[in-house]
Every structure is written in C-alpha cells, then in structure tokens.
C-alpha cells in the first residue's frame, strides 16, 4: 500500500487537491472511494463542512457552526452530524474492503486525534489496505507529527508527502 499525505494549513487547498487528484485518477481508469469534506460558505463566512462520498458522488452536511452560544460544539465552533460521520466511515471502510485503487480520507484533524470522526476508518485502512491500494490522507501541518503515535503504522515513515 502507498500512503500519501496531503499536508498544509487551514484553507490552503488540501481538499481541492484531493478532489482534483480523485478526478484525475478516475479519468485514467482508476477506482476511487473515501471522503472529502469541503468547507461551506455563506456570505463569505465559513459556516461548516459537507461530506462528499467520492464513490457514490453523494453530498450531505457534515458539520455546522453552533447556532446558539449555549450549545456545546464538538470541535471548536463546529457541531458534527453523527449520521454523516457514520456514513463517511462506512464509505472509507467499503472502499478499502472493495479494493478500490485510491481511498481518500479528508481530513484527519483534532476530532480524529480524540478517537472520533474518521479515526475508526483510518485505523482500519492502515491495517487493511492491500498492496495495490493508495491511501490519500489530508492533515493540517500542525497535527502531522501526532498521527504516527495515535495511529501506529510503519507506513507513516514511508509516506509520500504532497502540498497544495
């Protein structure tokens, strides 16, 4: 298995790079699955993130800014939709199990470091991906060094790195 890490700062274009990489892979006949989570903007302000299942092409809300001050956000100012998280994990796991050529996980962040979000699917993918599969993971540069201890795998040392 090949592990490719797309690393950059917030808003630098990690998700855009993964979406283009996936489109290019499909155009050359490779199978693609997993998830990307593009930001959602209203009136120029980021109000959340959506979940796109790359194989199915479906899109749904993933996280939104907390509406009322008394609400407790899951991470930062965002509340994550549990059904969307379950669907995203299922999309990643099925892409690995079905042997798709490229499996994307966008993005691994603070939620995953707490063992939530895409953490279950990432751990599964690192253990299970086949030799011919490519695992494409996006992460903020500030969190990159934490991934090998949180998700132990020899693949981190051999990973290819890309920047937007």
Question: How would you sum up this structure, described in words?
Answer:
The chain is of the alpha/beta class. Helix content is 32%, strand content 32%. It has helices at residues 14-27, 82-97, 110-113, 119-128, 147-150, 155-158; strands spanning 2-8, 32-36, 39-42, 45-53, 59-65, 78-80, 102-108, 134-140, 160-162. Strands 1, 2, 3, 4, 5, 6, 7, 8 and 9 form a 9-stranded mixed beta sheet that branches. Helix 2 (82-97) runs parallel beside helix 4 (119-128). The longest helix is centred in the middle third of the chain and has 16 residues, at 82-97.
Write the layout of secondary structure elements.
Layout: E1 2-8, H1 14-27, E2 32-36, E3 39-42, E4 45-53, E5 59-65, E6 78-80, H2 82-97, E7 102-108, H3 110-113, H4 119-128, E8 134-140, H5 147-150, H6 155-158, E9 160-162
Shape, per Cα inertia axes: globular
Number of helices: 6
State the CATH architecture: 3-Layer(aba) Sandwich
Structural class designation: alpha/beta
Total beta strand runs: 9
Rg estimate, integer Å: 15 Å
CATH class: Alpha Beta
N→C terminal distance: 22 Å
Order of helices and strands: EHEEEEEHEHHEHHE
The name of the CATH superfamily reads P-loop containing nucleotide triphosphate hydrolases
**Largest β-sheet summary:** 9 strands, mixed
Helix content class? 25-40%
